[in-house]
Amino acid sequence: MAETIKDLLELSLQDTYSAENQILAALPELEDVASSPKLKQAFREHIEQTERQVERLEEVCEMLGIEPDGESCAAMEGLVEEADDLMEELEEGPVLDAALIGAAQKIEHYEMAAYGTLCSLLRSMGQTKAVDLLAQTLKEEKDTDELLTRIAEQEVNPAAMQTLPANEQSGGSRGAA
What we know:
Elements: H1 5-33, H2 37-64, H3 74-89, H4 94-124, H5 128-161
């Protein structure tokens, strides 16, 4: 049972470590089913980035004498399951790509919250080196979120709009007003 701020920090680090490892397991499938070359590349690069992020978490845990393995991150399990459901329900193509971006951004936002919290806890404990390491990861998560937004807005969403029936593309309502 967590009673101290250090206990909370340990639980938070373990949760984030689990989350990152779940993402590492899920990203290759996201890359495989994406049809947009830019999205495939973003997922491929995020795999390499996530591997470095896991290493940083391990380094922080080692600095603090914390075992990184703990309970599985239930929130990430749900987010990954949601992405899996989308891959089963949607045909490969721009609409699935748009859905994958949305699912990936939900994951990025969860990670940003996790790393922001970790940095805040570590800062209050005077662990500046650990803060520096995890602040780097927080910046990478924000950058990935921005990249996904650019891919969505510049390429994927416009392509997905082309898959709508002609009578739905104008955005107007159907039926009498």
